[in-house]
Amino acid sequence: MAKAIEATDANFEQLIAGDKPVLVDFWAEWCGPCKMIGPVVEELAGDFEGKAIVAKMDVDNNPNTPHKFGIRSIPTLMVFKNGELVDKQIGVVPKSVLAQKLNGQLV
Question: Are 8 and 93 in contact (CB under 8 A)?
């Protein structure tokens, strides 16, 4: 079963550059809601294996990318395609909401 990829400031641009949709979960160890949505993000990594990329970025260890996107509250989940931000969700939502956002980017 696929797991979410670890996104970092160093690999972020390369990660989102492809033509597959990319879901990035911006989270932190101390964030309660992030821990609630974490398992959902991991499930999505398996559900979308081969179709989309699912990644998690620890905002404490990688401050540059969240700053670049103006992330003020976590969890923030962003969907990228061809290097562009195409969708965004702040806070905990059901798995179906995130799946729908990814499905909407599959062509």
Answer: no
Contact of 79 with 90, CB cutoff 8 Å:
no
Residue 39's φ and ψ, nearest 5 degrees, are: -65, -30
Cα separation, 31 vs 25, whole angstroms: 12
| Residues carrying an active site annotation | 31, 34
CB 54 within 8 A of CB 45: yes
Amino acid at 101: K
Chunked into runs of 10 residues, the chain (107 residues) has average pLDDT values of 93 95 98 97 97 98 97 97 97 97 93
Pairing relationship of beta strands 53-58 and 84-90 according to DSSP bridges: unpaired
Strands (E) located in 20-61: 22-27, 53-58
What structural domains does the chain harbor? 5-103 (3.40.30.10)
